[in-house]
Amino acid sequence: MTVTLDAIGIGLIFPVMPDLIAAVTGGTLATAALWGGVLATSFAVMQFIFGPVIGSLSDCYGRRPVLLVSLGVMALAYLGMAMASSIWLLLAARLLAGIAAATQSTATAFVADITPAPDRGRRFGLIGACFGLGFVLGPLIGGLVASIDTRAPFYAAGGMALANLVFGLIVLPETVSDRTRRPFTLARGNPIGALRAVSKRPGLKSPLLTFLIIALAMNVYPAIWAFFGKARFDWDAKMIGYSLGIYGISYGIGQALLVGPLIKRFGEQRAALLGMGIDVVTLTALGLVTSGPLALMLTPITALGGVVIPALQAILSRAVPENAQGELQGVLASLSAIAMIVAPLTMTATFAHFTAPDAAIFAPGAPFLLAAILMVAAILLHVTKSSDKGQKHR
To answer: Is residue 178 one of the residues assigned to a domain?
Structure first.
């Protein structure tokens, strides 16, 4: 429920971001897309820096206090975005939000604490399902609230963060015990040190790199979906909210009902490969589609591709001790942040290049084709390392 409420707060603001950025900058849609990339990247830089800090703090002081404090800061950040009168104030509030946005990784560490290793893939899938449910409700509500005022979704998002905080105060127990607690150190509390410590464990370098490449590819959705829908299909904020809602429903159903059976049937390694293959197909199709209804019809297929992240998380979680689950989630948050730093700038720049008034080829779907190429690279890495592992076992 915490992840669901958090996702609602995040998803509320997606449909209105292009209009808000255009309002505070006075620029074109292409200019707004570039600023959208800057805002997303600044958010990710803060997550990259503070993700391992928060993960290690949760290993030391517990999941509960870290999670609740971050929610309070997030509420303040949304209020700042709602009241921003310039792009620089909006940027400052986004930086604060990036520092606080560790709720999902902390929740994942919480679930790892209470779940036996064989069941973690399925449980991680349930986290994804909760996030998908919130992603359904958030954009739908955001698209509707935006009809009242462009800034209204940000106030609503702040209210959701506060509701999340109150909910956590009431029901959230602590899962870090004296047996699993470990001291906070600067060596583990910085992204480079934490990544170095985790990657030294046998068999983790390849899945960590695969995780990073997949994160780079899949960040195409939050980076350009609103701009893509507006440019390719002339969707307004309400329609963008509906489209994100359809995506969220599909993703949530897939995470809740398909991830567990797929991992059980194929195993974590092959389930991850299956998800990557489906992602290649859907990303390529979205890059080429010119029909809005057809794009909406493609989104349920993406639900099957959602198995890849829980499968990789399960592989990684098995390879670290119980008292390092927070550190691992902090590292994964940093890798996701690296993707969020690089991908939005790359994807929005690609979008701006192919949608500018003087563009030689008008291709709003070009970022999706770039993401498909990255996913192929992830497949090759995953297959190569899996084959090497099989050869060693033989």
So the answer is: no
- Domain-located, residue 179: no
CA distance 146 to 87: 19
The CATH code of the domain that includes 316 is 1.20.1250.20
Contacts of 69 (CB under 8 A, 6+ apart): none
Instruction: Name the token pair of 171.
Output: 């029901």
Parent domain of 336: 2-169+194-393
Query: Which value, in Å, is the radius of gyration of the alpha carbons in the chain?
Result: 20
Tell me the pLDDT tens digit for each residue of 99-136: 887 667 788 888 888 888 778 887 888 887 787 777 67
Give the integer Cα–Cα distance in Å for 46 and 41: 9
Question: pTM for the complete prediction?
Answer: 0.69
Q: Which of 178, 140, 208 has its CA nearest to residue 382?
A: 208
The answer to whether the CB of 181 falls within 8 A of the CB of 326 is no
For residue 317, being part of any structural domain is answered with yes
Residue 153 falls within a domain, yes or no?
yes
Pairwise CA distance, residues 298 & 277, whole Å: 15
